[in-house]
Write a structure and sequence with these properties.
It is a single chain. The protein has 264 residues and is α/β, with parallel strands linked by helices. It folds into 2 domains: 11-204, Alpha-Beta Complex (2-enoyl-CoA Hydratase, Chain A, domain 1), CATH 3.90.226; 208-254. It is 41% helix and 17% strand. Residues 1-6 have low confidence and may be disordered.
Length: 264
């Protein structure tokens, strides 16, 4: 039987190793534009990855090598059709404002614009192909980047560059994005997932709860004064002290062996 658009799964999920999940946007005929179904499925995946203690890192990528994600489905917006492109818990696409602790890595081939760029900004790290591009073109359509772009981009790159991107709506290529620190590394086309897996491997060898608490403190405290940031770090340290892994790390060091992390 021929697969129809309605039957096709628009967000793919697979475990590519014991501790790394790969999430793939799979609506290439619409440039992976976000609709209600994608928002719902991606939001459910966020919850699934948070609830599974075996998952220590998540990679977000696209089945279309020319476009990572073109943002919201403007045809659905203008026509008033389909489900909301937001979820109550996760905001736009079920991810933009999701309350999560696990590290997410965006593996970007092609254009990531509008909400697609905001999905990248919602992730903790970005691996970009040489053919990647990032932009917030909302002003060209009388809109604004309300899914995190306006406040996250100036925190990720020099504010002047961010303001230029926001006010002009013009995209920047992977090389300029890398120059200003928006992406962690730039690789040849077709190798972003491979590079993201290599980065994930460096993450998952560490104590998972320590990684999670550290990232939460870093995200939350990034734009706060020193004292407020220190309070958040202290709160997370107090939580980490109660875990088995907090004891296992020093013990393994003293015993001259590799630690065995349990995530408890």
């Amino acid at each position: 039987m021929t697969e129809t658009t309605e039957e096709k799964q628009l967000v793919l999920f697979e475990m590519v190793s014991d501790h790394v999940a790969l999430v793939t946007l799979n609506r290439p005929e619409k440039r992976n534009a976000i609709n209600g179904e994608i928002a719902r499925d991606l939001g459910n995946i966020v919850v699934k990855t948070e609830d599974d203690p075996n998952i220590r890192a998540v990679i977000l990528t696209s089945s279309e090598d020319r476009v990572f994600c073109a943002g919201a489905d403007l045809a659905a917006v203008s026509g008033g059709t389909g489900l909301s492109m937001e979820t109550p818990a996760g905001g736009f696409a079920g991810l933009a404002y999701a309350n999560r602790t696990k590290p997410w890595i965006a593996a970007v081939e092609g254009l990531a614009v509008a909400g697609g760029c905001e999905l990248c900004l919602a992730c903790d790290m970005i691996i970009a192909s040489e053919n990647a591009g990032f932009g917030l073109p909302e002003v060209k359509r009388g809109l604004l980047a309300g899914a995190g772009g306006l406040h996250r981009l100036p925190n990720r790159i020099p504010p002047a560059i961010a303001y230029e991107m926001i006010a002009t709506g013009d995209p920047v290529g992977a090389e300029r994005a890398a120059q200003h620190g928006l992406v962690n590394s730039m690789v040849e086309p077709g190798r972003t997932v491979e590079a993201a897996l290599a980065l994930a491997a460096r993450i998952i060898c560490n104590a998972p709860l320590a990684v999670q608490h550290s990232l939460v403190a870093a995200r939350t405290g990034a734009a706060l004064p020193d004292g407020a940031g220190r309070m958040i770090a202290n709160e997370r340290m107090a939580m980490l002290r109660k875990t088995e892994d907090f004891k296992e790390g020093p013990r393994a060091f003293v015993e001259k062996r590799d630690p065995v992390w349990t995530g408890r």
